[in-house]
């Protein structure tokens, strides 16, 4: 079992894959969160009825398997629209919308957790809607939403394994390439899992740290 | 001066204010008493435009609160309101709670806002709690902080909506003392309250609301000593 053909170069190859996973995740979570906050605030502000079209679209992104979304988006953009766009860009675009769809619900839930009476107090001090949102509602909503958001970020990191379908060589795809060559699937998957853990763990810890810092005691 | 002219307001089929007429002069302390559902709290939230009204009008220093052209955020700077719930911003320290609106709304510098906050917090007896988060304060302390937060905006009018109703009995006194102090300093105040003894002591006038109507308004001695309205007589008999 300890007799392996894995070389240092192969490990560098895997680390590059992990880097790609991290990059795709970071970009998608960044833009997905910005969009998610936007959609979540809109959804909360205009109420469920007026938000129906938006909710419907977001539901589509949430309920269709990511793999299918990636394939269809790639086909649509490259074949139908005829745009020459990299698989990496398609992957980031699709994953961002996918993240935004989930994030919007998390944001809405966070906003709803802020008591209406608190918002009245803020407005009665002469604060505008935007000031109330910026300095009272969103800071408090963030505290409530953080655990779910960390969960979402970690989920997106693992889901990002699917972007291999649009020719992005991320961590899992790199592993598969090595498996094909070295024929040591179990050992390589263990290494791959370890890489995933190494990039996920700091995010989870960071979430825990923020939660503790915000508990105000 | 606050002028309330024939104000009507309904929540769905329920008419909670049935044509209220009332004028509160500068420096006056008016308390409003009455059973729950009498419309007294609603009136306060209408005065600073948190609630729309159906008809009539409310003027604050001649500015019509519910006119479309009125800048409510600007108007609210001169009307402080404190609610039954304490409404501390839980993510900010006591000092930051009192500074936030000063900095963002009045555009005061941080230093000025802090000086004013410290002054107001000392005034309500919370000078020792500046760096503490609200979760560490008692209900009475949180309510006094809310009063300081409103006062820091240098309002011309203060509205108090049953500010002691959610407090444990032993904490009511400290908040009422704060209100007494404000009244003695000449602040124009409208206090909706269930504390009859307090109403009798501090008020220039007391108004009794019943089912959306202002049934009686008089100086406290007269209103409590010789109530005319039969509903008020019943109400006072029940609360004594």
UniProtKB/TrEMBL annotation, chain A:
<feature type="transmembrane region" description="Helical">
    <location>
        <begin position="20"/>
        <end position="42"/>
    </location>
</feature>
<feature type="domain" description="ABC transmembrane type-1">
    <location>
        <begin position="18"/>
        <end position="207"/>
    </location>
</feature>
<feature type="transmembrane region" description="Helical">
    <location>
        <begin position="186"/>
        <end position="204"/>
    </location>
</feature>
<protein>
    <submittedName>
        <fullName>Amino acid ABC transporter</fullName>
    </submittedName>
</protein>
<keyword id="KW-0029">Amino-acid transport</keyword>
<dbReference type="GO" id="GO:0015184">
    <property type="term" value="F:L-cystine transmembrane transporter activity"/>
</dbReference>
<keyword id="KW-0812">Transmembrane</keyword>
<keyword id="KW-1133">Transmembrane helix</keyword>
<feature type="transmembrane region" description="Helical">
    <location>
        <begin position="132"/>
        <end position="155"/>
    </location>
</feature>
<dbReference type="InterPro" id="IPR010065">
    <property type="entry name" value="AA_ABC_transptr_permease_3TM"/>
</dbReference>
<keyword id="KW-0472">Membrane</keyword>
<dbReference type="InterPro" id="IPR035906">
    <property type="entry name" value="MetI-like_sf"/>
</dbReference>
<keyword id="KW-0813">Transport</keyword>
<comment type="similarity">
    <text>Belongs to the binding-protein-dependent transport system permease family. HisMQ subfamily.</text>
</comment>
<keyword id="KW-1003">Cell membrane</keyword>
<dbReference type="InterPro" id="IPR043429">
    <property type="entry name" value="ArtM/GltK/GlnP/TcyL/YhdX-like"/>
</dbReference>
<dbReference type="InterPro" id="IPR000515">
    <property type="entry name" value="MetI-like"/>
</dbReference>
<dbReference type="Pfam" id="PF00528">
    <property type="entry name" value="BPD_transp_1"/>
</dbReference>
<dbReference type="GO" id="GO:0043190">
    <property type="term" value="C:ATP-binding cassette (ABC) transporter complex"/>
</dbReference>
TrEMBL record, chain B:
<keyword id="KW-1003">Cell membrane</keyword>
<protein>
    <submittedName>
        <fullName>Amino acid ABC transporter ATP-binding protein</fullName>
    </submittedName>
</protein>
<dbReference type="InterPro" id="IPR030679">
    <property type="entry name" value="ABC_ATPase_HisP-typ"/>
</dbReference>
<dbReference type="GO" id="GO:0015424">
    <property type="term" value="F:ABC-type amino acid transporter activity"/>
</dbReference>
<comment type="similarity">
    <text>Belongs to the ABC transporter superfamily.</text>
</comment>
<keyword id="KW-0067">ATP-binding</keyword>
<dbReference type="InterPro" id="IPR003439">
    <property type="entry name" value="ABC_transporter-like_ATP-bd"/>
</dbReference>
<dbReference type="InterPro" id="IPR017871">
    <property type="entry name" value="ABC_transporter-like_CS"/>
</dbReference>
<feature type="domain" description="ABC transporter">
    <location>
        <begin position="2"/>
        <end position="236"/>
    </location>
</feature>
<keyword id="KW-0029">Amino-acid transport</keyword>
<dbReference type="InterPro" id="IPR050086">
    <property type="entry name" value="MetN_ABC_transporter-like"/>
</dbReference>
<dbReference type="GO" id="GO:0005886">
    <property type="term" value="C:plasma membrane"/>
</dbReference>
<keyword id="KW-0813">Transport</keyword>
<dbReference type="GO" id="GO:0005524">
    <property type="term" value="F:ATP binding"/>
</dbReference>
<dbReference type="InterPro" id="IPR027417">
    <property type="entry name" value="P-loop_NTPase"/>
</dbReference>
<keyword id="KW-0547">Nucleotide-binding</keyword>
<dbReference type="GO" id="GO:0016887">
    <property type="term" value="F:ATP hydrolysis activity"/>
</dbReference>
<keyword id="KW-0472">Membrane</keyword>
<dbReference type="Pfam" id="PF00005">
    <property type="entry name" value="ABC_tran"/>
</dbReference>
<dbReference type="InterPro" id="IPR003593">
    <property type="entry name" value="AAA+_ATPase"/>
</dbReference>
